[in-house]
C-alpha cells in the first residue's frame, strides 16, 4: 500500500492495512512541521549533552546552576492540575501492545502510562500498531479475542498518559528533508493529531510522560513543541499536561527549572529510579572513585537514591505539583506462593515508603500489584486524591548528598553473571520485538538492562571493580562468562531458539568490552531492527 506524504517527507517502511489511518496526510503534516521547526534544537541539545559528558569525564562535577538561582528562589507554582490528573495514587505502566492496553486500562489503577519508551522495542510495527491501539482505546472501541478470551474495556478505566520516545531516539523510517525525524516528536504528533480533541470531548485531555531529559533546556524544547502543537490543532494553550521523569543525575540538579519551563503544561515529576541509576553509572563511569555494588544492592534507600527521592518530593510540593514514585521491579510469581508473598511484600514496602514520605502516587508493573499499591497509599492518604499540601521543609539535600554513591560493596561473581545473563536475555528479546520481559522474576526493560550492561563495562575499567573474593573483573573474565550465560538464557527464554539471542550475546560482548561506552544500548540495537 502507498500513502501520500507531505512535500519533503519520505517513509521507508511497509504501509500495512490500517497504517494509512494513522499516517494520514494531516497527521504527517504535523510531524513534518514540528520536525522542521524543532529538529535543529534537538540536535543542538544532543550535542550539548555530549559536550557536558566530556567535561564530566574530565572531572567536572554537577551542581545547582548559578544562572537559574532566581528560579529556585522564586515564589511560583505550576498551573492548576486538571481533574482527571488529581488522583494518581496508583499508575500502571506497560508497552502499547493491544491486550496490555486493554488490561492496563481495566486494571483498577487511577492512571495508565502507555509506553513507547523503556518497555517498548521501537520497531515500525510496534510504533504504528501502538498508535492504532491508542486511537481505539481513546474512542473505547478497542477489543481483542485471544487465547479463547474476549477483551474489551470496563465502564471505568484508568486515565491515559502517553510516554513518547526520549530525545536520543530517531524514527529512522520517516525522513523530512532527507533527515530522520525525532522518535519522540513522531510519537507525540501522531497521538496528538488523532486523539487530543477526542480526549477533551470525553472529559480528560492529552497527557504525557517525558523521559530521560538531562536539562531544563530540553524541557523548554518540549514546552515549545506543546505551544506550537496547540496552535496548530486549535487547542487552548495549557491543554497538554506532562509529567517529567527525573531519571538522569543532571536533571536532579534542575528539578525546579524543569517544572518552571513547563509550568503551564506541568503535571509534576516522577522518580524514574532505573534510568537514574544507569545515568549515574554512565556519567561517572571514568571516575576512579565511583563504583557501585551489585545491582541488587542499589536500592531506593541507598544514600544517593534517598537524597534524590526526597529532593524530588520536596521540590514538587513546593510548586503545587504532583510527586509520583517510580517502579519496584518486583512482579507476581505465579509458580511459587512463598516467593510471590516475598515479592508482594517488597512492593508493599516500596509504596509504603513513598506514601509515608509524601508522594502522591507510584508506579506498578503488573495489574496484580494495583490493589497492594492502592492499599498502601490509602493508608496514608485516606480518601484524599493526593497529598500535594504536605510540604517537606525538613528535607535539605546538598550536591554532596546527590553524589554520595554508596553502596560500593559487595561486587560478586553472582552479581556479574546476573548482569551478563539479564543483558543478553533482554537484548535478545528486544531484537525480537519485545521491550519488557520477566527475567528471574523481575521486570526487565531498557532502563534496568542499561544498568546491567553499564555495570559490566564499568567494573572492567574501575580499579574498584574487584569481586569480593579478590579477583579483578576483566574483559577476559566477562568474555568467558558470556557463552555460559547465553546457554542458560537459551534454556529459559520461551523463544530461546531465536537467533536474536546469539546476536544479543555478540552485541553484549562488544558493548561491555570495547573501549568506548555506547551512550544508550538502544542506539546500536535500533540499527538492527
Ligand atoms: C523503568 C521503567 O521504565 S518502568 C516502566 C516500563 N516497564 C513496564 O511498564 C512494565 C510492564 N510490565 C510488563 O510488561 C509485564 O508485567 C512483565 C513483562 C513484567 C511480566 O509479564 P508476564 O510475565 O507476561 O505477566 P503475566 O503472565 O503474569 O500476566 C498476566 C496478565 O496480566 C497482563 N499484564 C501483565 N503486565 C501488564 C501490564 N503492565 N499492563 C497490562 N497488562 C499486563 C498480561 O497481559 C496477562 O494478561 P492475560 O491474563 O489477559 O493474558
Ligand atoms: O522510566 C522509569 C525508570 O525507572 O527508568
Ligand atoms: Mg526510564
TrEMBL record:
Any GO MF annotation of the entry: malate synthase activity
Pathway: Carbohydrate metabolism; glyoxylate cycle; (S)-malate from isocitrate: step 2/2
Membrane-spanning intervals of the chain: none
Sequence ranges assigned to domain Malate synthase C-terminal in this UniProt record: 411-529
Keyword Acyltransferase: yes
Reaction(s) catalysed (UniProt annotation): glyoxylate + acetyl-CoA + H2O = (S)-malate + CoA + H(+)
E.C. number(s) listed in UniProt: 2.3.3.9
InterPro entries documented for this protein: Malate_synth_C_sf, Malate_synth_sf, Malate_synthA, Malate_synthase_CS, Malate_synthase_TIM, MS_C, MS_N, MS_N_TIM-barrel_dom
Domain Malate synthase TIM barrel: 159-404
Pfam families recorded: MS_C (PF20659), MS_N (PF20656), MS_TIM-barrel (PF01274)
Domain Malate synthase N-terminal: 8-70
Family that this chain belongs to: Belongs to the malate synthase family.
NCBIfam families assigned: malate_syn_A
Record-linked PANTHER family: MALATE SYNTHASE (PTHR42902), MALATE SYNTHASE 1-RELATED (PTHR42902:SF1)
Protein name: Malate synthase
Amino acid at each position: 500500500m502507498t500513502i501520500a506524504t507531505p512535500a519533503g517527507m519520505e517513509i521507508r517502511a511497509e504501509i500495512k492495512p490500517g497504517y494509512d489511518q494513522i499516517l494520514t496526510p494531516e497527521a504527517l503534516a504535523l510531524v513534518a512541521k514540528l520536525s522542521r521547526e524543532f529538529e535543529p534544537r534537538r540536535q543542538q541539545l544532543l550535542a550539548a549533552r555530549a559536550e557536558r559528558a566530556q567535561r564530566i569525564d574530565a572531572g567536572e562535577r554537577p551542581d545547582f546552576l548559578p544562572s537559574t538561582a532566581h528560579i529556585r528562589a522564586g515564589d511560583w507554582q505550576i498551573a492548576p492540575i486538571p481533574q482527571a490528573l488529581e488522583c494518581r495514587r496508583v499508575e500502571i505502566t506497560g508497552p502499547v501492545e493491544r491486550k496490555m492496553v486493554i488490561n492496563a486500562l481495566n486494571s483498577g489503577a487511577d492512571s495508565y502510562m502507555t509506553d513507547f519508551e523503556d518497555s517498548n522495542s521501537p520497531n515500525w510495527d510496534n510504533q504504528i500498531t501502538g498508535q492504532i491501539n491508542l486511537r481505539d482505546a481513546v474512542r473505547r472501541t478497542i477489543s481483542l479475542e485471544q487465547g479463547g478470551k474476549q477483551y474489551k474495556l470496563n465502564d471505568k478505566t484508568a486515565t491515559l498518559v502517553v510516554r513518547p520516545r526520549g530525545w536520543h531516539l530517531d524514527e529512522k523510517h520517516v525522513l523530512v528533508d532527507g533527515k530522520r525525524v525525532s522518535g519522540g516528536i513522531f510519537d507525540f504528533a501522531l497521538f496528538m493529531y488523532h486523539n487530543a480533541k477526542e480526549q477533551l470531548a470525553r472529559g480528560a485531555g492529552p497527557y504525557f510522560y517525558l523521559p530521560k531529559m538531562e536539562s531544563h533546556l530540553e524541557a523548554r524544547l518540549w514546552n515549545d513543541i506543546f505551544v506550537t502543537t496547540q496552535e496548530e490543532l486549535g487547542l487552548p494553550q495549557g491543554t497538554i499536561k506532562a509529567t517529567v521523569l527525573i531519571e538522569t543525575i543532571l536533571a536532579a540538579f534542575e528539578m525546579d527549572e524543569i517544572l518552571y519551563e513547563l509550568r503551564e503544561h506541568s503535571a509534576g515529576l516522577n522518580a524514574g529510579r532505573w534510568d537514574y541509576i544507569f545515568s549515574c553509572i554512565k556519567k561517572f563511569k571514568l571516575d576512579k572513585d565511583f563504583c557501585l555494588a551489585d545491582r541488587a544492592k542499589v536500592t531506593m534507600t541507598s544514600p544517593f537514591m534517598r537524597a534524590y527521592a526526597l529532593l524530588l518530593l520536596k521540590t514538587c510540593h513546593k510548586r503545587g505539583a504532583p510527586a509520583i514514585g517510580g517502579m519496584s521491579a518486583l512482579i507476581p510469581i505465579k509458580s511459587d506462593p512463598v516467593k510471590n508473598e516475598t515479592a508482594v511484600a517488597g512492593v508493599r514496602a516500596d509504596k509504603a515508603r513513598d506514601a509515608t514520605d509524601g508522594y502522591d502516587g507510584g508506579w506498578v508493573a503488573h495489574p496484580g500489584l494495583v490493589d497492594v499499591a492502592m492499599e498502601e497509599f490509602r493508608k496514608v492518604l485516606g480518601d484524599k486524591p493526593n497529598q500535594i499540601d504536605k510540604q517537606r521543609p525538613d528535607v535539605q539535600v546538598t550536591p554532596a548528598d546527590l553524589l554520595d554513591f554508596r553502596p560500593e560493596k559487595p561486587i560478586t561473581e553472582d552479581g556479574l553473571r546476573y548482569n551478563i545473563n539479564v543483558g543478553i536475555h533482554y537484548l535478545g528479546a528486544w531484537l525480537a520485538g519485545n521491550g519488557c520481559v520477566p527475567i528471574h522474576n523481575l521486570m526487565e526493560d531498557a532502563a534496568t538492562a542499561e544498568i546491567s550492561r553499564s555495570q559490566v563495562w564499568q567494573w572492567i575499567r574501575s580499579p574498584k571493580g574487584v569481586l569480593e573474593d579478590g579477583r579483578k573483573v576483566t574483559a577476559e573474565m566477562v568474555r568467558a562468562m558470556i557463552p555460559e550465560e547465553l546457554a542458560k538464557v537459551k534454556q529459559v527464554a520461551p523463544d530461546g531458539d531465536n537467533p536474536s539471542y546469539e546476536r544479543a550475546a555478540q552485541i553484549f560482548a562488544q558493548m561491555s568490552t570495547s573501549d568506548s561506552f555506547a551512550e544508550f544500548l538502544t542506539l546500536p540495537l535500533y540499527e538492527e531492527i
